[in-house]
Amino acid sequence: GLNMSDVTLEVFYSKTCPKCPAQKKLVKEFDEEAKVKMTDVAENQGRAKNHGVLAVPTTVVDGPELDEKVGFKGVTSEDRVETAIEVAKGDRDPEELKSDGILGKLKEMLG
């Protein structure tokens, strides 16, 4: 079966960003369902660039059932994170992510 480490939640943040602490706190609550990673964009500029991160906070979700990583900007609701985790695990239809206005493919959002 799938275990929690199959899904990764990565929050790209900066120390000066006023909204980042709220998003980091929200994502940390999912640490039993996914592998949670906090990435400081100032210290990891290459990684942020590779993920198309143009603003902080950006939360990137990755998992076995996602064709490509899903990213969303700003502070999100718990429901959005939950949906993304379930889709990444294969428990929900990926269409549910696409129909959500704020959650889009990184390319579509940032392209």
Label this structure with key terms:
single chain; alpha+beta; five-stranded mixed β-sheet; 5 helices; globular
What are the SSEs and their pairings?
Layout: E1 8-13, H1 20-28, E2 35-40, H2 45-50, E3 58-62, E4 70-73, H3 78-89, H4 95-98, E5 104-105, H5 106-110
Parallel strand pairs: 1-2
Antiparallel strand pairs: 1-3, 3-4, 4-5
Radius of gyration from CA coordinates: 13 Å
Number of helices, where a helix is a run of at least 4 consecutive DSSP H or I residues = 5
How many strand elements?
5
Elements, N to C (H/E): EHEHEEHHEH
Q: Compute the separation of the termini in Å.
A: 35 Å
Structural class, please?
A: alpha+beta
**Biggest pleated sheet:** 5 strands, mixed
Approximate helicity band: 25-40%
Strand content: 15-25%
Shape: globular
Mean pLDDT: 85
Brief summary of the model shown:
With 111 residues, the chain is of the alpha+beta class.
Structural description of this entry:
By secondary structure, this protein is an alpha+beta fold. The protein is built from five helices and five strands. A five-stranded mixed β-sheet has the order 2-1-3-4-5. A hairpin with a 7-residue loop joins strand 3 (58-62) and strand 4. The N and C termini lie far apart (35 Å).
